[in-house]
Write the structure tokens for this entry.
Amino acid sequence: MSTASVQLPRWINYGAIPLINLVLAFVCSGLVVWAIGESPWEALQLLVAGALGRGEGIGFTLFYTTSFIFTGLSVAVAIHAGLFNIGSEGQAYLGGLGAALVALSLDRYVPWYVTMPFAIIGAALFGAACAAVPAWLQAKRGSHIVITTIMFNFITSSLMNYVLVHLLIVPGKMAPETRTFLPGGQLPKLDWLIAMFGGKLGAAPLNVSFLIALVMCFLVWVLIWRTKLGYEMRTLGISPSAAAYAGIPYAKIVMITMLISGGLAGMMALNPVMGASGRLQIEFVGGAGFVGIAVSLMGRNHPAGIVLSALLFGILYQGGAELSFDMPSITRDMIVVIQGLVILFAGALEYMLRPAIVRLYQQVAGGR
Amino acid sequence: MDYFDILISILGSAIRLSIPLLFTALAGLFSERAGIFDIGLEGKMLASAFAAACVAHLTADPWLGLSAGIAVSILVSLVHGFASITNRGNQIVSGVALNFVAAGLTVVLGQAWFGQGGRTPQVPAQGRFSPIILPGADEIRSVPFIGPLYANVISGNNILTYIAFLMVPLSWWVLYRTRFGLRLRAVGENPGAVDTAGVSVAWLRYRALIVTGFLAGFAGTYLAIAQSAAFISNMSAGKGYIALAALIFAKWKPVPVMFACLLFGFLDAFANFMQGKSVPLIGEVPVQIFQALPYILTCVLLAGFIGTARPPRAGGVPYTKER
């Protein structure tokens, strides 16, 4: 009997296997560190201390976590409907334009809590707009969504380059970025959250969008597992032919799913643009869209898992930055290696150990 | 400057810019026609560029550099195969992962070995592929039209450029005139039929990926030690994705791949030329339009407005022998 059809208990499928894959990815990363001539154990200690040691470190960690939750949710929503959205990066980038336009036009007149809802809508609309064309091409013309979303990452990048260099740049300045928003266009920092645990936020840009991200996690959970639309999306994801047989409209679900996915990616822009730098900068997404793929895979496309894996990558990003200060021979790009290995082991090689684990489980559980 | 001289200089630079695309797109052709999606072309290019630059720096021999580039690229390709053929993992996820690993590892290792912020040291002149002046180039330079075209566009390229154009008919011959090519195309359309005929699907796909790695190795080597003289972090700068776009734009066929790569190379060269220049009546055309044009064209093609682009039928689906 083939091992592929054996049912494993949930704690093995959703707990043990991802954990073992994660450990494998870290062992490989440790080998790289060891090959460079540094101690992997010491590097790990520095990394964890840098990410979680002080209030400021935690603030930075949660700041990165916020971005990764949004992009992770974006990828996950699409995956539930069987769509692989590689375009979160571009959708977040365009979302930044939506958020920035709202902030630039409202920050003079109203306080931040009035700007915020419009900024959320603006960011989501622009992000969704960026996903709309690939979605339409997939739904109506059958073009592969992976290819078109990759293409749109580059198209968006050129578009934003043009917008920032030619249209939104402050006259007389060299840097292609908008003016700094007034407080009415900025999201306040979460000093009190860190202070509650006796820490100090310092210069860390942890802001209100962290709370928005958590709300979105809950809403995505409701959408996927508690609504008719979510049920239809999951049906389409598991079996397109069953979905067609049940009368679920393919084109409509693909469009809606991708618009939601793009909207979630667009909202990621709130965090760096309105929460941290207070202005729209070139290339501000910085790969967070691609991290979303890893986050979603690690988190098994479930919002709770996404929060945990976003936290893991937040720790990696902040800890990795601190690590490169303390160990100059290890550059920040080590994070990219770890990220790649996590995607490789948790995503592409997820079935590698399954047959062995199934055999082990059958022996321990008495065998059948 | 005379319009003809401008055209010659743009054409020359278009050729130089399209060579890495051509190698990479042909590399992708073999894996995609065998039913393995390859988003990881970018990573192969980077990894092989790094390997070629390191070895060429140490040995001052471009051919050893090329061999290293090819070896590393094949290694990356085999990891992709291990994940997507042996373990039936998601091919796109595996490609994305390998792109990250290549982008990170080249800089981490480069910094650890050479300490120049991820760059490799300058490759000495004899360690690079330098331009070859074809016979008679200087003699007929003064002949109008044909002279400059021969001297500045056809002659004066390095050996890899000529190899790239040789690879086009060679790829066509392998894919359409050999038993291996026939089986390779069949395994991308209907692996079950190939399996029934008693040919191993996995081994065939692995061989396709080895060819992919081999060709992508040339592309990386070209970037590192023919076009420039060192490895710079992220020096492929999205060329792997443009090559993927070219491959789709050419509808997965070798000769159209060449024309698509030349077109995209020309757009790139034209964008460089147009930077800061203004066109009569329109004014300054933003260079970003030219940068985005390959991607826009590919999307338009995928939408089915310029003929139909039908990918290999079994692409992206891991093959399971029995349930």
The two ends of chain B are 69 Å apart (CA to CA). The beta strands of chain B are 278-279, 283-284. The mean pLDDT of chain B is 86. Chain B has one domain: 3-302.
